[in-house]
Amino acid sequence: MPTGLVVSAHAADFVWRAGGAVALHAKRGYRMVVVCLSFGERGESARLWRQPGATLDQVKSARRKEAERAAEILGAELIMFDLGDYPLRVADEDLFRLADIIRDLRPAFILGHSAEDPYNYDHPLAKNFTHEARIIAQAHGHNPGAPVVAAPPLFLFEPHQTEQCNWKPQVFLNIDEVWDIKRRAFECMQAQEFLWEYYTRVALQRGLQATMNANSGITITHAEAYQRVFPAVVEELA
Amino acid sequence: MPTGLVVSAHAADFVWRAGGAVALHAKRGYRMVVVCLSFGERGESARLWRQPGATLDQVKSARRKEAERAAEILGAELIMFDLGDYPLRVADEDLFRLADIIRDLRPAFILGHSAEDPYNYDHPLAKNFTHEARIIAQAHGHNPGAPVVAAPPLFLFEPHQTEQCNWKPQVFLNIDEVWDIKRRAFECMQAQEFLWEYYTRVALQRGLQATMNANSGITITHAEAYQRVFPAVVEELA
Amino acid sequence: MPTGLVVSAHAADFVWRAGGAVALHAKRGYRMVVVCLSFGERGESARLWRQPGATLDQVKSARRKEAERAAEILGAELIMFDLGDYPLRVADEDLFRLADIIRDLRPAFILGHSAEDPYNYDHPLAKNFTHEARIIAQAHGHNPGAPVVAAPPLFLFEPHQTEQCNWKPQVFLNIDEVWDIKRRAFECMQAQEFLWEYYTRVALQRGLQATMNANSGITITHAEAYQRVFPAVVEELA
Amino acid sequence: MPTGLVVSAHAADFVWRAGGAVALHAKRGYRMVVVCLSFGERGESARLWRQPGATLDQVKSARRKEAERAAEILGAELIMFDLGDYPLRVADEDLFRLADIIRDLRPAFILGHSAEDPYNYDHPLAKNFTHEARIIAQAHGHNPGAPVVAAPPLFLFEPHQTEQCNWKPQVFLNIDEVWDIKRRAFECMQAQEFLWEYYTRVALQRGLQATMNANSGITITHAEAYQRVFPAVVEELA
Amino acid sequence: MPTGLVVSAHAADFVWRAGGAVALHAKRGYRMVVVCLSFGERGESARLWRQPGATLDQVKSARRKEAERAAEILGAELIMFDLGDYPLRVADEDLFRLADIIRDLRPAFILGHSAEDPYNYDHPLAKNFTHEARIIAQAHGHNPGAPVVAAPPLFLFEPHQTEQCNWKPQVFLNIDEVWDIKRRAFECMQAQEFLWEYYTRVALQRGLQATMNANSGITITHAEAYQRVFPAVVEELA
Amino acid sequence: MPTGLVVSAHAADFVWRAGGAVALHAKRGYRMVVVCLSFGERGESARLWRQPGATLDQVKSARRKEAERAAEILGAELIMFDLGDYPLRVADEDLFRLADIIRDLRPAFILGHSAEDPYNYDHPLAKNFTHEARIIAQAHGHNPGAPVVAAPPLFLFEPHQTEQCNWKPQVFLNIDEVWDIKRRAFECMQAQEFLWEYYTRVALQRGLQATMNANSGITITHAEAYQRVFPAVVEELA
How far E29 CA lies from chain F's nearest CA (Å)? Predict the structure, then answer.
């Protein structure tokens, strides 16, 4: 059974940015695992904090439930690292924990955040954390008993303001057959309702762009875009 | 029958830089077509010019024969535009000729030169010529009777000093099963014997890099590397 | 009376990419002038070419009418250079013509295409043409009798697939008060109906991004984004 | 009363790099606040260390006095974080302290260091510290009682060897009306007298460049240059 | 006798940007040759055009005299191509003429303009013209009788607004021993007196930067900065 | 007696990447010092870990012996920091230790890792550690008694997959006279035998490239390539 891994800085990132990939591969029989490094409790829960008397625990609990519901809809297992946000900070033991998850899963691909983001310091940190964990999972001297992984490709999903992040689509993934699932997962995110339409429009824009880049003549309505970190290895160019 | 198109500035570029792709796809049943914009007669035939009394016609003729033999070995059809080199110069009628070839072939992919090369002004010009011809082949108002092409991907093959050209591998193509053919094609290029070993080493370096980037655990000995101009459109990420 | 100049490669570019700026400044009393270098007759009129028996003259005529209606709605004067497209080609006399228009108008700003576009060779060429004409308009030895211009800023409007063009928003222009006008101008473009929704979504995405970048707390629903070519000169930072 | 905030890695950076902006906005009624993360005691006080028997406390005390005098001349309040230099190191509590200052001030703009500097590791660190603090000041879950800030723009002032830092002017600020004040502030910096003339020349070069980029025909003799981190949001382009 | 070649788009560029290198190498026994592609008659002679009744011939003649005097002071031979400016346009026969000059001189180095310049389209064109001519001078098939050159390094001298041109100093040349000569050459340029002080300050800024980058402890007061196009080949790193 | 310093993240990096520079300068009378931050025990010792019952101490010991033998062959002194790898982590006391080594040695040059490497997080960290230590060694307030260094140039040696690291050769060093020594040092590295041929081919590729970039007509068979961090300061351009 092939697997895919998504590493999300905050509770909702995997939904907006990679929910289509999660649902699509889950539908095709992949085991999909989402690691959330934080709940986005401090920095991405404005609406919850506007409620009188809100506490950190309440906010975290609310966001956990949203993420769990969304993961269930998308067909993914969810692992919460609960490392805090704004700022996210990671220790080497967290790194080893993720490296061991990568070793256990032996994923066919890993999805993570963009390398830059002037609006968000947690996102690039999460990318580096994911990227370094993948490399440690390849090191024979890390937990010498456990088998190392080969070279799972790392795809960077779409940040909120792409051009400011110097992030560039290199792969368009057709998500038409799971679009309704992705949209339903959006609707779990009560704390960020203003993003539902934003990311619906992102999916439509990427859909038309995918259509324009496809050589097959296919029409794609909804797509997700990814940047690759490593080159692809292929047996044929077409 | 699927097709592939290679556009080479000089007679030998397609051999060093894309000979593996040509042979591999030919072997798999593709119709492979190579367009050479020039013979490399002025700028890449030093050895021939060192022969006493060498003339331009002799040099062109010798290089044509080499290119024909190499194309035959690789399994490609060869079209010579004979536009001159050092400097290569192109007119709009040449552009339309290439656009029409693209329309006729409806290629599954196009291979061309790098976008920059501080050692060679003909190479980037050939890239732009190829790139613009592909776009014109998509324009409904160009030869309105003939059907337009969709969006054939354009891959840029490896320049001689890659880092100076800001060229970056995004795709490694395993050419092990045709390496002996590519090497035999090298040996047609009597004018540039010093490059045989250079590009054999390039194939070996790219082979080890491909092995290190493959998630399948495969060992690749010889590879070619390409940079993509357009994003890929996929139905699955792995 | 202040003026603004837009230079558009094809008949419709100024509508999708800068229609809000045109309408907004027109409404505020600017004289707005749009120069179209071509009608987009060959490369951006697919729908018209699908009509049986379509001729180049018919297509040009149809696109001219669309552009005229759109310019009228937006409140701009329209100048057609009719230089052809796919490929657009410019001569020095065209350059001098545009330089003289710049001198006549003494624009407060000039709007043009992005510097790169892998999907379109006419767009970067139009940008360079505009940019060079602006510089020639500054040269005292060009038409020595006529007064030179100072340094009109050049803003590059949004290409279709921004990230592929390495184009980055540096300025968000609030176009809420003219959005309905811009949308009506879209609807003149019968040849490219599929773009109406695409560029409506662009306006909405840029609107939310503008809101997120504004320090004033303002909510912006529709915006246009621009990249600057030259630094701004200011008397205060806020 | 509008405010502006400057975050300086070492005691003198705000004088050379942003002294004009401080004086200009102070003169126009802004409350200007300068945060110095260190005194530059180890790395930017060579002249003081050449005095026999110099101690760290003496050097810090001398540099503190210089910075206080300079801030007074420029019209700014000065806050010393005293975090050490060469290397500067910051903790999350420092980050929260700066975030809270940003919340208190609600600045119309923030000025900070360049993103890169191969001659100085403290400068990019100070930029990231400033940038991340600004983002945390926006997070509703940080000190939930206190009102968040909107999106204060961040301008990066000029490093010593600009091209090596990939720093690029996007805004020229006319500082002619406060140039004499900025120059007097230079003269407080007894520890770095060789920089007085250097940064006087910087002001003159930027002045001529500002003149060449201004469309108004104004002549500017002294200017400061800044790079923007975030796009501007505007209601008109001219 | 070693030689050096400078290719200048307009009559005065070689003075401001490379006058120190010319004078220094001339003093050390190099034959220095300056090729001016134009007189800068249209675009860089504002002061001359302000004289009532100025004609193109008068302006060209005045600028020719200035350039000749400056070249004489610096110790260089001057070759005028007279190709026009704003816009500069070059034909292949001009390219071959420069290639043949390069072959005749067999220069130890070539100096040219920056690769980008948003304020000036002639400068990058001149750089490309120089760069391509150097490559053609290496081609055995160009004028087969004449011996080819090896690989003369190409250094790009300083544009007016360096950061806007993405130009970066990689080499600082100490010009202290010829600074007075360079300054005297400035003073021939009556048409651009406002640049005398500007480029004097450039020399001083580069001098201090050179001092800060030198490992020898030397103090340099005046320097010129260059960007390299090709890697250096060395026998020792220090 | 001049000195050179190399800072290597793992035990073998200095051999593959800078072994020629070490041997060449040692032969010419330089004192050459190599600092290894780790043994590469976890991440670059796959072959050793494949031996049944391998322990961390055994692996470190084996790699230490290899590095010692290689250093002896190359003619260098070896200092082991033993900071661990995959992940390498550094503390400020390590930084001060390296800064003090730099002060003691007063090196004519420092060699370090590339600034980026998507395959290895230890390499860029080692580069930054080296770079920051060099800057601290210049700070008068660090160990005020000891004399500061001037500005030793920092050269970045070749990473494994150069283009992925955005690393670009700016200097080719001819290592023909010490190639046999470098090759013998390779053969100490029993843990990474598959790299012997890879880096032999790198030397040959760089050799041919060096030949093509040399203006002297020299033929170079083996070379090493370096990127510079700081500009060079020269007294003559040729």
Answer: 12
Q: Of F152, F134, F169, F175, nearest to F25 (Cα)?
A: F175
Asked whether the beta carbons of D215 and C150 are under 8 A apart, the reply is yes
Domains of chain B by start residue, with CATH: 3-228 (3.40.50.10320)
Share of chain B above pLDDT 90, in %: 97
Amino acid at E185: A
Q: What's the pTM value of the predicted model, to 2 decimals?
A: 0.98
What are B112's two structure tokens?
A: 């061309």
- Test E164 with C139 for CB contact under 8 angstroms: no
User: Cβ–Cβ of E174/F232 closer than 8 Å?
Assistant: no
Enumerate the residues of chain D whose CB falls inside 8 A of the CB of residue C228: 170
| A13 has pLDDT over 90 | yes
Query: What does the alpha-carbon distance between residue C171 and residue C188 come to, in Å, rounded to a whole number?
Result: 27
Q: Is residue A180 over pLDDT 90?
A: yes
Over 90: is that where the pLDDT of D190 sits? no
Mean pLDDT of chain C: 97
Considering only residues 162 to 191 of chain B, which have any Cβ-Cβ distance to chain C shorter than 8 Å? none
Cα separations in angstroms, C217 against C210, C214, D52, D154, D233:
10, 6, 56, 16, 11
Q: pLDDT per residue over B67-76, tens digit each?
A: 999 999 999 9
| Facing E41 at nearest CB: one of C138, C141, C229 | C141
Classified as helix, coil or strand, B29 is coil
3+ Cβ–Cβ pairs closer than 8 Å linking D and E: yes
| Cβ count within 10 A of residue B97 | 16
Q: Of the candidates D92, D139, D231, which has its C-beta nearest A42's C-beta? A: D139
**Neighbors of chain C with 3 or more C-beta pairs under 8 Å:** A, B, D, E
Chains C and F touch (3+ CB pairs under 8 A): no
For the segment F36-92, what is each residue's pLDDT rounded down to a tens digit? 999 999 999 999 999 999 999 999 999 999 999 999 999 999 999 999 999 999 999
Asked if D141 and A86 come within 8 Å (Cβ–Cβ), the reply is yes
Nearest to D151 among C111, C213, C226 (CB): C213
- Average pLDDT estimate for B171-185: 98
Q: Is B103 on the interface with C (CB under 8 A)?
A: no
Q: What is the DSSP string of E125-156?
A: HHHHHHHHHHHHTT-TTSSTTSPPP----EEE
Dist. CA E233–CA F202, nearest whole Å:
16
CB contacts of A164 in chain D (<8 Å) are 230-231
Mean pLDDT of chain B: 97
Q: Give dist(CA C197, CA C220) in Å, integer.
A: 19
Sheet holding A223-228, edge to edge: A76-80, A31-36, A3-8, A109-112, A154-156, A223-228, A171-174, B232-234
